[in-house]
Model the fold of this input.
Amino acid sequence: MPSSSTSLSELAGSRVVVTGATNGIGMATARALAGAGVRVVLAVRDTDLGGRRAREFGGDCEVLRLDLADLTSVRAFVDELDGPVDVLVNNAGMFPHLRRKTPDGFELGMGTNFLGPFALTNLLLPRVTRQIVSVGSEGHRRARIDPTDLDYRRTRWSSPRAYTASKLAVMVWGLELDRRLRAAGSPVVSMLTDPGWAASNISNKPGLGALHRVAQGLAGVVGNDLDAGAAPTLHCLTEPIPPGSYVGVDGPWGLRGRPVLSGRARTACDYDLAARLWTEAETLTGTRWPLG
Done:
């Protein structure tokens, strides 16, 4: 039986937005796409670095500023981006090493990793023609989330708790996004991925130099390199997998390996939780489901 897989080169000429494309998994994703002839929009906070990356990647790369921690920036990005988009890759993420708030008053991890991408997707969705891929995390399995307390007023805050909760939010949001797209009869499909433990830039924060070097060193030994970390996202673009799928890696404990369809925690399959989280996110971001 012939394979129904496609190669990246068969996506040449399509247009893909990649958030967080200057470093880590986003950089590797954008580089692979640009090398295959895909028209890549590098959605980045640092446009100078984005310009350097575009020159390094070659191909057809457009650089636009996007800070997912700031809803004003999200709206400005959508206004500046012209024309349709075939694929939106919600890749950008951060590890909140300090308890801080975004310009909109959200807890920084939740605001950057979930609420910003949620708003971006709602605003951009009418122009997306094919696919949305959002990067989650195996860390969602250790998380809990209360949709009415996303700013940790009643819940004790810690860096790991805030990070894993934001990634659980992404997983639960992806569940509801898939349901809504199918209910609307949309041709757009939504998928979730996990890169494994990759030597990314997520722990590169002021005051965490030693920890960042240790994390990168360990990732180099027991985790994926950046190209392997990008592989689950690229897998979603080239393989005939079902809408709503979660693609992780096949190695022990989800640390490294090749892309594979993965199960998700029971909490990440809770449609009631997903509906409540969606309603709260709409209220907080002032964005709505755009497909009727």
